[in-house]
Amino acid sequence: MDRISCLPDSILCDILLYLTTKEAVCTSILSRRGRHLWKDLERNADSYPIQKFRLTCDTSEESISTWLDVVIGPHLQELYLHLFLSNVSITLPEGLFTCPSLKSLVLKEGIHFFDGFKVSNVYLPSLKNLEVEIPFVDFDELLSGCPAIENLTLDLKIYCFCIRKLHMPHTLKSLTFLEPSYFYEETQEICVRETYTLSLEYMNLRIVSTENAAIRVSVFDFPNMVEAHLSISDRAENDHWVLLLLQALNKTKFLVLKDSTAECMFCAPASKFPKFHCLLSLEVDVPCFNKSFMLKLLHNCHVLERLLINIPLLRPVEYYGPTPPTMVPNCVTSHLKSFEYRQYQDSADEPDFIAYVLQRGLVLKTVTIHVESDFDQSTKDDITRELSAIPEGSTICQLNFI
């Protein structure tokens, strides 16, 4: 005899509450009576309020809408939605944007807003984390309805719209703004108010600009910045704002410069060449290696401990920036512990720079050279032999070749 089936629904629901959602649904195959019993867990939401709901699926639109109607309410604190629906998108319930307890909202693909949606009706007083990958009309106004926001991620997978203006809340601590890698024809303007810069600690920007899509960023100061990732491709040759942005990052400790971000410094006057007083780790992509540029950069990184240089696509670019001082950078002699060089081409400046760092890096622990893979084995052996023969200033330095 099936004793479990004889139990009252209230007791069976209590048992199901100890299972995961997937396990509870699977119990529907155990008996005819239990086929729909798991759905009572939704209907008992007042007694057992759902605080966290994470859904990644490709099921029917009807099921997803039912689940959302159940979980969205005054007790919901975290919602994560990532849907894979063929030619179908889910419309978000209006009540989602007035949840008083919602702290984290992540909206990935396959989601749309309901017809007649007004951004001015959004009020999420407890929201601290917002991650969005879906088309939106007015992000600026959306953020005004999130007075406690601390972490913001806008990942624009496609250009369905244009962000004309984006003001960051003063509460923001982490900003990730990612554009697609291809171009579009609208004018892009991202404005940053001074009030928000005081608390920002993390920044990750991927921005593409063309002659028809100029970007203007109002930059002031980032006194609490800890880590910044910049991937800025400015095809409009209007890199003045990029230099201002780099200057404003003078307090950051970890910096990653991708794409053509570092290239704007190749023509920077001495007064605008950025200085990084607190920088501990630097990863920099350069269009081509230039010893004068790297030495000038090292002179302006006073306490740098880790340096990674990468040349992803060799593209000759002349350096017209300031001439570096003749003295050895303080970071090289006193702070630099790790140095990594990727896509080593064995060009005119490269062996000299490697020797410069090896001989004057008195506290170096590891130096790693990634030799260009297109070289034949004989050339690779010659490069390894020549660089290994360079005398090292540090007695504990380990030289590695990849």
From TrEMBL:
<protein>
    <recommendedName>
        <fullName>FBD domain-containing protein</fullName>
    </recommendedName>
</protein>
<dbReference type="InterPro" id="IPR053781">
    <property type="entry name" value="F-box_AtFBL13-like"/>
</dbReference>
<dbReference type="InterPro" id="IPR036047">
    <property type="entry name" value="F-box-like_dom_sf"/>
</dbReference>
<dbReference type="InterPro" id="IPR050232">
    <property type="entry name" value="FBL13/AtMIF1-like"/>
</dbReference>
<dbReference type="InterPro" id="IPR055411">
    <property type="entry name" value="LRR_FXL15/At3g58940/PEG3-like"/>
</dbReference>
<dbReference type="InterPro" id="IPR001810">
    <property type="entry name" value="F-box_dom"/>
</dbReference>
<feature type="domain" description="FBD">
    <location>
        <begin position="330"/>
        <end position="402"/>
    </location>
</feature>
<dbReference type="Pfam" id="PF00646">
    <property type="entry name" value="F-box"/>
</dbReference>
<dbReference type="Pfam" id="PF24758">
    <property type="entry name" value="LRR_At5g56370"/>
</dbReference>
<dbReference type="Pfam" id="PF08387">
    <property type="entry name" value="FBD"/>
</dbReference>
<dbReference type="InterPro" id="IPR006566">
    <property type="entry name" value="FBD"/>
</dbReference>
